Amino acid sequence: MYTIRTMSRADLDIAVEWAANEGWNPGRGDAESFYVTDPKGFLVGCLGDKPIACISAVKYPPDFGFLGFYIVAPEYRGRGYGLQLWQAAMARVQGGNIGLDGVVEQQANYRKSGFHLAWRNVRYRGAGPQSRVDSGSISGKLVTLSPLAGHTLTEIADYDRQLFPARREAFLKSWVAQPGAVALGAVTGGKLCGYAVMRPCREGYKVGPLFAESSSIAEKLLGGLTARLAPETPFFLDIPEPNPAAKQLVAAHGMQQVFETARMYTGPVPDIPHHKVFGVTTFELG
Question: Which residues on adjacent β-strands are paired with residue 58?
Fold first, then answer.
């Protein structure tokens, strides 16, 4: 018998392992950060007691949802199990705007569920270490880098909310403190003007988010993170295609495109300043 239920925390570890098998290169500490964001936002489809499919349907107050982790075990694909799980996930986040990052080839199927293409997010790969400068003047103002832990959660969340469609304190508290992660804030005039997180993954590291008021600040943050890497360590950055300065940033670091997704929504495209988004936080939760 096929049943769908809410994942336990242990179930989410299974989903992350499946994501690794799909080649998605999840972060080593992602499961905990994802789970605390919305403990009821992860669904698993089971045949008897055996998990065979998973999906995330995370709610952000008041009315934003995000779908991800949509995986059916290869030997059970094409039997309708994934569609039933998809319908359950959509039911959970209905009533608000819903986003997802899906493979480009599935755009037509997502459109059938009411999604429309907003833009592409493109993953680039580089190799560390890169140059590092922790302070300097940008447009006549002194900008310094310091550990993000020196800032309050409220300060981080306030800045983050300008560049993400919902407030997400629980997620951020866990995300910036992942084991092995490096989180930096850029400060000018005593206020955050950007922040970035680099976390260890199954292969190398991922940088995300990378939010900054200007391309110069984004460059400083990316350099500050990747300078800490051992020689030839791979790192990845997912950039939104609508930001041409992000394309210039990855080109300046000699990074190569390796993957892309279709960012899609059921409602209006969120009104955020894309020119300040140099790196998407995560394809799984937005």
Answer: 66
Those residues with Cβ within 8 angstroms of residue 8's Cβ, 6 or more apart along the chain or in another chain: none
| pLDDT tens digits for range 92-149 | 999 999 999 998 888 889 999 999 999 999 999 999 886 655 555 555 578 899 999 9
For 70, the enclosing helix (H) or strand (E) is strand 64-72
CB 259 within 8 Å of CB 250: no
Tens-place pLDDT, residues 156-210: 999 999 999 999 999 999 999 999 999 999 999 889 999 999 999 999 999 999 9
Q: Which two tokens stand for residue 212?
A: 């900054």
Q: State how far the Cα of 151 lies from the Cα of 196, in Å rounded to an integer.
A: 13
State both tokens at 238.
């997912």
179 and 203 Cβ atoms separated by less than 8 Å: no
Q: Mind listing the pLDDT tens digit for each residue in 43-78? A: 999 999 999 999 999 999 999 999 999 999 999 999
The candidate with the shortest Cα–Cα distance to 225, out of 215, 210, 239, is 210
Contact 147, 193 (CB under 8 A): no
Q: Is 207 exposed, middle or buried, given 0-12, 13-18 or 19+ CB atoms closer than 10 A?
A: buried
Partner residues linked to 262 by β-bridges: 102, 120
pTM over 0.90: yes
